[in-house]
Write a structure and sequence with these properties.
The structure is a homodimer. Helices cover 30% and strands 28% of the residues of chain A. By secondary structure, chain A is an alpha+beta fold. Chain A is globular. At the A-B interface, helix 1, strand 3 and helix 4 of A face helix 1, strand 3 and helix 4 of B.
Chain lengths: 253, 253
């Protein structure tokens, strides 16, 4: 109860995935975890290599080949409930089969004007995302797409991409959490399509041929609708599905 | 670790004060606590009367006559780390002598453009406030005054008032957490001065005769400087000190 995470919501985390007992993109996650910690002035108290060893030890003991591993780092036990103390770190592991959603499923998004606090830091703050969930249900949407004055940023736990009719692939570059799968998809996409990080507006989405989201849990997932308007044919797009397959191959290789 | 407060920063609280073993403005705090819970769709699971009894029981057992009591209500143990579960409620008590700052001390504020998420709800989110603290130190300021495009709202744990040269007293009415001491000070002030809730701009502060903040912990505390500029004479104002005395009297009566 005296930790600043509960007292003042002050904490960060990162979420690693294992497949067949192997860590996927572990260095990227570790780099982001240390970046978040430094932005929040939280001492990790371990080097990257030490943390890697800890992760491996936990994974060996738990023996859950396909899993999600969360490292949480908090503001620590604060004497006055306000000042930063020595951070507490806890690592937990749970079974996870990522990207298990049916390809054809796709999701429906609804836009909402909001910018996360310290958007490039993976803080524990998802207050708005959870607060908005009943509103999503009412509006028959699966998730929320944040924007500021029509400029799109991200989904609470995913990044957002569009494919234009000329097959240009784009995702927002600012005011977002830079996802690890986003990075891989940018790389894969760039090997075949004109791909860029740029400002995307709600109007651009209406004109898009395809849209999709990326995340460690969802991998690449088609977006079929935004604000009740169908994207392209209203079915998962070809380029989306190609990226999804390429990513899956990369992960399993 | 599985509570949504740590997973997703999803929780609320309220902070009660006891003086000589008696709860001060307990009904106001309870009303606000239930309001916050309802806004966040968290079931308190107790009536106000039941909660009052619990508070009294705790106070009797702890026997800390001058104290702060915090009731925290969280999103609960969430299966998927994202969906609301049955809320957890924890009540803690610690010694507290409120308003112990020296009258003459006063504080220096620095303005920062930010609006709290769900500002009228007492969530546990103080991420920006704590994140800004090193910046306050660098700028020789004691606390931060939030504004949006020059329109002032609040201090992270206090409300903000100004007194104009014609003795009009004003505090922001929107995008704030409505403080319990703020309410009392509005009442006391209104008994003698023209007092209103209205939009206050940074420019208004520069022209003000006095400024002060209110909170359960600080009661009424003079503001001597905002953004490095002296307010009025640069000393605690007469009306500020009168309000402070009146409030103290009310509390001890």
């Amino acid at each position: 109860m005296n930790d600043l995470a509960i007292q003042r919501a002050y904490g960060i985390f990162d979420f690693f995935r294992t497949v067949n007992g192997k860590f996927i993109f572990a260095d990227d996650h570790l780099d982001r975890f240390f970046y978040s910690a430094s932005q929040m002035r939280l001492e990790v108290g371990k080097t990257k290599d030490e943390l890697k060893e800890l992760l491996a030890e936990l994974a060996a003991k738990n023996n859950i080949p396909d899993s999600g591993i969360r490292i949480t780092l908090t503001g620590g036990y604060s004497e006055d409930g306000y000042s930063l103390a020595k951070p507490n770190m806890v690592i937990t592991q749970k079974p996870l089969i990522a990207g298990k959603e049916n390809n054809a499923d796709g999701i429906r998004l609804i836009s909402y004007e909001h910018r996360r606090q310290l958007p490039d830091v993976k803080t524990i703050d998802y207050i708005m995302a959870i607060w908005l969930r009943p509103w999503l249900l009412q509006n028959i949407a699966d998730d929320v797409l944040y924007h500021q004055a029509g400029k799109v940023s991200e989904i609470p736990r995913s990044n957002f991409f569009i494919v234009a009719h000329d097959n240009k692939v784009a995702t927002a570059g600012n005011n977002i959490l830079k996802g690890i799968i986003r990075k891989q998809v940018l790389k894969i996409s760039g090997s075949r399509f004109d791909t860029e990080e740029k400002d995307i507006y709600l109007d651009d989405i209406r004109d898009a041929k395809e849209a999709f989201i990326t995340s460690t849990t969802k991998q690449v997932l088609p977006v079929l609708q935004v604000d009740g308007q169908q994207i392209g044919t209203g079915k998962p797009g070809e380029i989306t599905m190609w990226l999804r397959e390429q990513l899956t191959q990369l992960v399993y290789d």
